[in-house]
């Protein structure tokens, strides 16, 4: 193994919670309430596709024109950006900074593969831009997770074969993308949800090189 490629939202920081709050507010406005269980199906999924899934849930997929859907997605994003604007280095999830340092010291390449167009902004606010050798975000990929493109691009930029990469994800779609890329999948979250991951840690405090490598 030569590289670790991290998802951002829900792995490096708890911004997955803010995505949930912003989508839930929009859903309520559209009379499409949903719970955390449905939200699991939105994690890792692009902004446009998330909106489509919410509209489908409410049987409203035909109710809006393309322009109206763009406005709805923009509204959600403005709400999300207002929620994340106060993110600071204190919001890096526990154990992540120590793990990133451990990886750097051990000579691993470190990448990020995020489905978010806000990834660079969030990473900058967390003070972690320099911690990653390369960041691939939604702005530069055509296909969103569970398609492997974002992970494959990150591996290529790091100069590492996919089979020598370990992907770290909190989303079902993300774990699928890691596997589709031919990488080893570390899940962060509920093992009953992330059933396809090769190994699951319930939270980021479990992330150490030893804890991961013993499972490979
Ligand atoms: C992913 C999140 O990282 O990014 C999703 O898990 C989110 O919940 C997606 O919808 C797109 O994010 P953004 O910031 O481009 O709307
Ligand atoms: Mg995520």
Précis, in short:
The protein is an alpha/beta fold. Helix content is 42%, strand content 12%.
Which structural traits does this protein have?
about 220 residues; alpha/beta; Rossmann fold; DNA polymerase, domain 1; 2 domains; 9 helices; 6 strands; globular; binds 6-O-phosphono-beta-D-glucopyranose; binds magnesium ion
Kindly give the count of domains.
2
Return the structural class.
Answer: alpha/beta
Bound molecules: 6-O-phosphono-beta-D-glucopyranose, magnesium ion
Strand order of the main beta sheet, please? 3-2-1-4-5-6
What is the number of helical segments per DSSP (H or I, 4+ residues)? 9
Describe the protein in words.
With 216 residues, this protein is an alpha/beta fold. The chain has two domains: 3-14 and 91-213, Rossmann fold (3-Layer(aba) Sandwich); 16-84, DNA polymerase, domain 1, CATH 1.10.150. Helices cover 42% and strands 12% of the residues. It has helices spanning 15-29, 36-40, 47-57, 66-84, 96-105, 119-125, 149-158, 172-180, 209-213; strands at 3-6, 109-113, 134-136, 165-169, 184-188, 199-201. A six-stranded parallel sheet has the order 3-2-1-4-5-6. Helix 8 (172-180) links the parallel strand 4 (165-169) and strand 5. It is globular, with a radius of gyration of 17 Å. Bound molecules: 6-O-phosphono-beta-D-glucopyranose and magnesium ion. 6-O-phosphono-beta-D-glucopyranose is lined by residues 8-9, 16, 19, 42-47, 50, 77, 114-118, 138, 171.
């Amino acid at each position: 193994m030569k590289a670790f490629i991290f998802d951002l939202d829900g792995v490096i920081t708890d911004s997955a919670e803010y995505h949930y709050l912003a989508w839930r507010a929009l859903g309520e406005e559209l009379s499409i309430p949903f719970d955390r269980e449905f939200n699991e199906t939105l994690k890792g999924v692009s902004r446009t596709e998330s909106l489509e899934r919410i509209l489908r849930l409410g049987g409203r997929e035909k109710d809006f024109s393309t322009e109206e859907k763009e406005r709805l997605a923009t509204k959600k994003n403005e709400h999300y950006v207002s929620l994340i604007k106060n993110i600071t280095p204190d919001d890096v999830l526990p154990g992540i900074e120590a793990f990133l340092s451990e990886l750097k010291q051990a000579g691993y390449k470190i990448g990020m593969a995020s489905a978010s167009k806000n990834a660079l902004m969030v990473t900058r606010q967390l003070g972690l831009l320099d911690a990653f050798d390369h960041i691939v975000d939604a702005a530069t990929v055509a296909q969103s997770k569970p398609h492997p493109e974002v992970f494959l691009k990150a591996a290529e930029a790091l100069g590492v074969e996919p089979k020598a990469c370990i992907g770290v994800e909190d989303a079902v779609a993300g774990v699928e993308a890691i596997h589709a890329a031919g990488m080893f999948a570390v899940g962060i979250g509920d093992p009953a949800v992330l059933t396809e991951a090769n190994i699951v840690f319930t939270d980021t405090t479990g992330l150490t090189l030893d804890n991961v490598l013993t499972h490979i």
